[in-house]
User: What shape does this take?
Amino acid sequence: MRSQVEGSQAVARAVTLCRPQVIAAYPISPQTHIVESLSDRVRTGELAGCEYLMVESEFGAMSACIGASGAGARAYTATSSQGLLFMAEALFNASGLGLPVVMTVANRAIGAPINIWNDHSDAMAMRDSGWIQLYAESNQEAVDLHVQAFRLAESLSVPVMVCMDGFVLTHAFEEVDLPTQEQVDAFLPPLVPRQLLDPDEPVTIGAMVGPEAFAEVKYLMHVKQMAALDEIPVIAREFEAAFGRSSGGLLRPYRLEDAETVVVALGSVLGTIQDVVDAMRDDGVSVGALGIGCFRPWPVGEVREALQNANRVVVVEKAFAVGAGGIVGQNVRDATRRQPVEVYDVVAGLGGRPITRASLRALLDDVLGGRVDPGRLHFMDLDLELVQRELERSRHGERPGPHAENMLRDLGTVASGAYE
Amino acid sequence: MPYQEIKLYQTGTFVAGNRLLEPEQRSVQARTGRSNSITSGHRACRGCGEALGARYVLDAAMRATGGKVVAVNSTGCLEVFSTPYPESSWQLPWLHSLFGNGPAVAAGVAAALRARGRDDIRVVGQAGDGGTVDIGFGTLSGMFERNDDVLFVCYDNEGYMNTGVQRSGATPPAAITANTKALGQTPGNAFGQGKSVPLIAMAHEIPYVATATVAELRDLEYKVEKAMTFRGARYLHVFVPCPLGWGADSADTVRLARLSKETGLFPVFEAEAGEVTEVSRIRRQVPVEEYLRPQRRYAHLFGDHPRPDIVARLQARADRNIARFGLLPEGDE
Assistant: This one.
C-alpha cells in the first residue's frame, strides 16, 4: 500500500511486519521516532507477542538482544551515533556468538564536538564489528532492507545492521509502498534458531576459547560473511519477485556502462549524485555512479567488476579515518588495485553539511580538470581559512582554549542563526 | 540414576545435620536427585567460595523450578573456571556474553521466554562483585527498576580476583589488593568508599532481596527457593571467601564466611518490596580481629607495626551493622 509517511514510521511499520519478539531500545536522536512508534505498535497490539524492554542504555539494549536471541526470540533494536559506540563491546559479542539480531542505525555524526546531524562516522567506526552493514538509499529501500535483513540474519545466523541516513531519511516524508502482512509472512518464515538456551537440551554458549580454536571461530565469522555475498543477491532477487520492486543487493550501478569517471557513495546522497551524473551526461561527460548497498561484507569482486572500465573513481564518503584517509576509499582502492585507475578520496557531508549538486559538480569538474591530487585526502566545501585562523590563534598565548568554541565564535553564527 | 551414598554428620557448628531432618527438609545437595548444574572437573581454586555458592544456588534453583532454569553469566572467575574450551561444567543451558551486561542479557532471555510463552522456564543471572557492583551496575539497576523476571546472584569475594586481585566497589576498607597495597599513610583500601548493593537493590523496591554466606548453605538454598516463588526482579548477594585473593587457607573458606556474619561485618538478611523482613542473628558474637587475622590481606594490621586504630575502625563498621540490622540475639540488644 502506497502512503505518504515519515521514514521512521515506515521503518517501524516494516519492523512490525517482521514480527520481532523482543525489542530492546534506548532513545537517541535521530532514531527516536522509530522506537517510539514501535512502542505504540506493541501497546496497541498491532505488534502482538512482542516484549518491549526500555533499557537503561544502548549497551543494555544490545545486551538484551543478545539474551533474547540466545533464548530463541527474533530480536531487534535501533540506535544512532554515540549509542552505536556505547554498544561497541556488545556488537562484537553478538557477531562472535553468531546471533541473528537486526538493528537500524539512523546514521549520525560522532562527537566531540557533539553534533546530532547525519554522517556515517558511527556505522563506519563499527565496520569491523562482524555485523553485516546494509545502507539504504531511500525510505522505500529502508523499508525493504529491513524485511530482507531479518531473512539474511536468520539464514546465516549473523547480525545485520540496516543503515539509513539520520534526519535525511528518518525524518523525511516520502511516498513509500508498505508491504502487507501476508507478503512479509510469505517472505520471512518464523525464526528457527541455530542455537537455543533450552533446559531440555542444555548447551553452553559463550565459553572461553584459547589459542587452540580462537582463530577458527573467528575465521568462521569471515566465512559466513563471504557466504552473505552470495546470499544477499539471492534474497534481493526473491524480494523483487515477491514484492515487485528492486531493492537491496550488493551494488547499485547507475549509468556505469561506458563511464570513464565513476562516483562511489553510500546512502541517501546517491540521489543527488545521480542528478549530477544526469546533468553531466547531458553535457557529454562520460560519468556514472556506483552505490554501495552492502559495505560489510565488502563485495570486492563485484566492485572490481563494476569499476573495470573506469579511469577515475571518486569516492564521496561521509566519514574518514583520522590520520589515514578515506575508509570506503581504501576499500575501493583494494578492489581496483590491479586496474589502471585513479581513486580520489573525498570526505563530504560531515556533521550534516549538505552535499549539494553544485559542490559535486565543482568537485567532478576539478577532478576532470586535473586540479585534485589523487594522492591526498580531499575535503569537499572545507572552510580552510577558518581552520587556518584557528591554527594561528593556537600559536599565541598559553591557553588558546577549545577549538570548536573558538571557531564558532570566529564564524559568528550557529546553525540556528547569529552567534550570541 | 545409580544410588549415591551420602555421609551425613553434625557439622560442628550450630547447623543441624541432615540426618536429624525429615527427608523433605533435607538440603538439595543431600539428595541423590540433585542436578549437579555445575558439575565436577572445573578449574576453580581449592577452597573456592564462589564455586561452592554457585553449586548450591543453581541446584536449589533447579529443584525449585523442576529443572527449568537458564543461567546467564557475566565474565569473571566463575565463567573462566567453568568453561575452558572445549569443556564445560554446565549441565543447564548457560550463556556468557560480557563482563558488564549480565543483568541485561538475563533480562533479554526472560523477555524472549515470555514472548515465546515459555515463562515456565526461569532465569538466573550470575556475576562476581566486579560484574555486579561496578561494571555491571548500570544494567543491574535497569533490570531492577523494570522488575524483569530474573533472579540475579552476586558472588561477592570482595575484589577482582580473576584479573589478579584488584580492588572493587565491594572491597572492604583496609584490605590489601594488588592496587591497594600496604603503602603510604592509609595502608590497604580506603575507608569511606564502597557500596552495599543489597541496600541499593532494596531502594528499587524489588520483590525480594537477600544476603547469604557459604557458611550457612541450607540458608542459601532456602533463599534461592524462596526467591523462585516470586516473579519479577530478585537479588541475592552471597558472601564467598576467596582463598587466593584474601591470602587465606583453602580449608578456612567456610570458617571465614561464618565469621563474616558472626562479627557483624556481613549482615545476613531478607527484604521484600524494600523492607527488611528477616535478619539472621549472630549466634556468638566475635570481635572482628578473629575474622581478620587468618587473612593475609589484613596482615599489615597485626605485624611489626600493628594498627589497632584501623582494627577499631573495622570493629566500628561491624558494630554499626549490628545496630542497624539488629543482628544480636534477642535479649542481647
